[in-house]
Amino acid sequence: MLVNDPEAAHWPVDPTRLDLVEEFRRAPRGPHSDALQKLLHRMRWSGVGRRHVLVVLEPNRRWMLARMPATRGAPIETFPNRVFTSLAEAEWAVFVLRWEALTGVPLQDEKPSP
After folding, report:
1. How far is CA 80 from CA 31, 40, 55, 64, 86, in A?
2. What is the per-residue pLDDT across 15-52, written as a single tens digit (0 to 9) for each?
3. Angle at Cα 70 formed by Cα 16 and Cα 93, nearest 5°?
4. pTM of the shown model
């Protein structure tokens, strides 16, 4: 769900809010609490760490991790060694990278809960 709160892009991320991490891990596609929606909005739209994204290799079958370029119009950086056959695993990998970029605190890059 899209957050239309203009302050969400500046929402302070508290690295101790591991409850939000677990909420995302349990239900990466939602529904999400208000706090998790704000966190995801911040992760998706902050320029911190050159955002990681997913590139669709085969619709609904395979995704590759990539990173947006620092300069608009430059090619994205792809990571061919990080290909996923589960969208939940792919989204979890991106969440982990974005969390660390925003908080400076690494999460264990484990597979999401079923």
Report:
1. 31, 25, 10, 7, 15
2. 999 999 999 999 999 999 999 999 998 888 876 667 89
3. 40
4. 0.83
Question: In this structure, what token pair is assigned to residue 2?
Answer: 């899209």
H or E element, residue 33? none
Domain ranges in the chain are 14-103
CA atoms within 13 A on the CB side of 38: 13
- Enumerate helices (H) and strands (E) in the chain, giving the number of each: 3, 3
For the stretch 48-96, pLDDT in tens is: 667 899 999 999 999 999 999 888 888 999 999 999 999 999 999 999 9
Task: Map residue 31 onto helix, strand or coil.
Answer: coil
